[in-house]
Each structure stands twice: as structure tokens, then as C-alpha cells.
Amino acid sequence: MSKKKIIIFTGPSLSHEEGMKILKADYRFPVKRDDILKTITEKPDIIGIIDGVFHQDPAVGHKEIMEAISKGITIVGGGSMGALRASELDTLGMIGIGYVYNEYAKGYIESDDDVAITFDKSTGKALSEALINIDYKFKKAIDEDIITNDEKDKLLSIAKSIYYPNRTYFNIFKESSLDKDKKEKLIDFIVKTEDIKKLDAIAVIEYIKNLK
Length: 212
Known about the structure:
- By secondary structure, the chain is α/β, with parallel strands linked by helices.
- 47% of the residues lie in helices and 8% in strands.
- It is built from ten helices and five strands; from the N terminus they run E-H-E-H-E-H-E-H-E-H-H-H-H-H-H.
- It has helices at residues 16-22, 35-40, 62-70, 81-89, 99-105, 131-143, 149-161, 169-175, 180-192, 196-211, and strands at residues 6-9, 26-28, 46-49, 74-77, 95-96.
- A five-stranded parallel sheet has the order 2-1-3-4-5, sandwiched between helices.
- Helix 3 links the parallel strand 3 (46-49) and strand 4.
- Helix 4 (81-89) packs across helix 5, helix 6 runs antiparallel to helix 7 (149-161) and helix 7 packs across helix 8.
- The chain is elongated.
- The mean pLDDT is 94.
């Protein structure tokens, strides 16, 4: 059986180096408008969409994803832009994977602001924090009795009020009224807890790996 050609768009959620440890594939930086149309000409068997641009450049279009699907290319999405597009196109053939995809698909979140971040275009490294990651970690912190539900709601309200390029834990805690001990425990917990977008990115690649 011939080896399948796989192209995966990722960056802030999961580095190319981390992805390669799971699956050998052609890893590229976050997808933007017309990238899928260009990729179609390379005749891939599978395209994985994890990260994509939102406001820095035009976002990947629905029509180009549908064009790829019509050519028989398997499109798998999750984690960030991939989760958003999969929730919009899952009834039309795009495969959605992970927590973030399910949050969109079930209507618990609706805005691209929930996954939008800024990142270094040369390295793909995140420069701000995704709201979905913040919400996920705060919910986990409630489970660990680090913060109360009321405190979580107040912290999340602060996070939502910050424009996404400036949305960092530093800026959130700067505006919070948590006492010093609780804040330190929460920061320690956040550092030790994996981002849900990263976990979803790994799930996307694992899923694609099993398609081979």
C-alpha cells in the first residue's frame, strides 16, 4: 500500500517538532485564506487543520475546504480554527475532533474570540492566551478546590473584557481581587495543566495517524 500524503496546519497549539514525534507528516504554519486551494494542487490524501489565522490575514474559507472534500481529500479539524470550521462543516464531510470542536458543535461557544490568539509568525509561538484554554483551566481549578465558581466567573469576565492580543494570565490577574495565596496556587496549577487546545491538537494528529 502506498504511503499517504498528509499535510497538517499547526503552530501555537502544537509545535511541528511535537507533532513529528506523533506522526511523520508535512507540518505547516497556521492556515490562511487560499492555503487549502494551493494545497489541493499537491494532491494530499489528508489535510489536518489545527491552527489558522483570524485577523492577521483573511481566515481559511469554507468554500476551499469544501472544494478539497469534493476532490476526495479527508479534512480533519480540531484545537483552534480547525475546531471552528469543523463545527460549521461537519455535516458536509469535515471531521471534527476534541473538546473545543464539541464546545462549538454543541453551541456552548460560538465566537472565534474563544480560540483567537496572536502568535509569532516566524516561530508559531503563542503571544497571548486563548479564552477556551483559560476557561478550561479555571473549570479544572474549581474541581481541585483552588477557586470557587463565583471566583471563576469573575476571572473569566476579566479575561473576556481584555482584547484578545492582550489576553494573558498576567493581565487577568493584574485586574483580579484574589488574595495572594490563592492567586499563587492558581498560577502554579495553570502552569502545570496542559492547554486544552494542545490536547485537542494531539488528538487530531492521533486520529489522522490511525487513518493511515
